[in-house]
Amino acid sequence: MSVIPGLEQQNQRYAAAFEEQQLPTAPQLKLTVVTCMDSRIDVFAVLGLENGQAHVIRNAGGVVTADVIRSLAISQRKLGTREIILIHHTQCGMLGITDDGFRAELQEATGQAPTFAIESFTDLDANVRQSIARVRTSPFIEHTDSIHGYVYDVDTGALRRVEE
Ligand code: ZN
């Protein structure tokens, strides 16, 4: 039983009530948010953002991978963003796996070892600091003077700043 037909119906209602926005492609707040794919984080609501104000880059864990660097490079160099917020969160699914364990699981199930790093972590604050460091030391990221890291509590909705 697929949820897709219901989603299509919901979009029809959404589009019917949609007020044409004609927003520019470049985010108005010149902000990029990097965070986890977790279903409990409504990034726009958490930060009080509106459509058109910020880029949001998401993956499992909100980890700064090569592809996140690619998106950040485009965000800054082609679409004018200057500030970066990194958000990890409590109860992250990445806290429950290990790189070696998941790699072995994939290899056993498929016969292929993944070519990508799993990037699991056990310490949220340490991983936020590592993510900041990866962005800061990337030669492709132009603006590194305003990078802020946080841990989001999925039970309270509160952000806690992680000092570098
Ligand atoms: Zn997560």
Please, could you describe this protein's structure?
Helix content is 35%, strand content 18%. It has five helices and five strands. It has helices at 4-17, 43-47, 66-77, 99-110, 124-137, and strands at residues 31-36, 54-59, 83-89, 147-152, 159-162. Strands 2-1-3-4-5 form a five-stranded mixed β-sheet, covered by helices on one side. It starts with a helix and ends with a strand. The model has no long low-confidence stretch (mean pLDDT 97). Residues 36, 38, 61, 89, 92-94 line the site of zinc ion (ZN).
Keywords:
164 residues, alpha/beta, binds zinc ion, EC 4.2.1.1, zinc ion binding, lyase, 18% strand, globular, 5 strands, Carbonic_anhydrase_sf
Main beta sheet strand tally, sense and closure: 5 strands, mixed
N-end to C-end Cα span: 46 Å
Q: How many alpha or pi helices? A: 5
Bound ligands, named by name, code or SMILES: zinc ion
Along the chain, the helix and strand elements come as HEHEHEHHEE
Spatial order of strands in the largest sheet: 2-1-3-4-5
CATH superfamily: Carbonic anhydrase
CATH architecture: 3-Layer(aba) Sandwich
Task: Name the structural class.
Answer: alpha/beta
**What is the helical fraction, as a range of percent?**
25-40%
Q: Oligomeric form of this entry?
A: single chain
By CATH, the topology is Beta-carbonic Anhydrase, Chain A
